[in-house]
């Protein structure tokens, strides 16, 4: 899979469908940060438009994206939101979005011609804007530093906490996702670093107590596509999530823990 071709053709699709209303297309996530794994990673995009589109326009775009995804991405691995340029300039939390597409919504767009996702706020966008500002790539339109501005840390922290708030309840269902996300959230809170899941996990290997490092190491191996016979029981994952959320709470409150090795 030539990701340069994928991105070029994605931009062509958006320009064809949105025309002069398209202000910019921005890449974020693992592909922008140099740790993309085609078997595990999504292609994360943000579209910025000048003016709102009708639901029919967005639903037509969803159909075009589905065809594009089937052709170049084997039907999986694309996630994008579309936002108004004015909503970036006049930031409110949670940031509103006009349209959203992901693998989850792909099935709904296919099954129901009336399905539409958009028109409300998404806390995750505050984190996405931050990643774009610091680590993203402009694929089309205005340069990042002209379109975006730094997001107040308070909102970034709220977005990150929103992303891991169910970690204890959900980590056994999605161990790779929550293990590495918990690491990168703590990495940001303690050191102010905007990192990928892989980078956050590598940081965790160096900083976390020894008993939790095998869990992180296993997640990193799985993320890289390697086979790893190491088995983590459910209680171990829950214990890791509880520990990490405790450290995250301490970091948010400005405290520190002697459990972390430096």
Write the layout of secondary structure elements.
Blueprint: H1 3-18, E1 22-28, E2 43-49, H2 55-72, E3 78-84, H3 85-89, E4 96-97, E5 99-101, H4 103-111, E6 120-121, H5 124-135, E7 137-141, H6 144-147, H7 153-164, H8 167-170, H9 175-191, H10 197-207, H11 213-223, H12 234-253
Parallel strand pairs: 2-3
Antiparallel strand pairs: 1-2, 1-7, 3-5, 4-6
Helix pairs in contact: 1-2, 5-7, 7-9, 9-10, 9-11, 9-12, 10-11
Would you give an account of this structure?
- With about 260 residues, the chain is an alpha+beta fold.
- It folds into two domains: about 5-145, GMP Synthetase, Chain A, domain 3 (2-Layer Sandwich), CATH 3.30.300; about 165-255, no CATH class.
- About 55% of the residues lie in helices and about 15% in strands.
- The chain is built from twelve helices and seven strands.
- It has helices spanning about 5-20, 55-70, 85-90, 105-110, 125-135, 145, 155-165, 165-170, 175-190, 195-205, 215-225, 235-255; strands at about 20-30, 45-50, 80-85, 95, 100, 120, 135-140.
- The strands form two sheets. The chain has a five-stranded mixed sheet, sandwiched between helices. A two-stranded antiparallel ribbon has the order 4-6.
- The longest helix is centred in the C-terminal third of the chain and has 20 residues, at about 235-255.
- The model is unreliable at about 260 (pLDDT under 50).
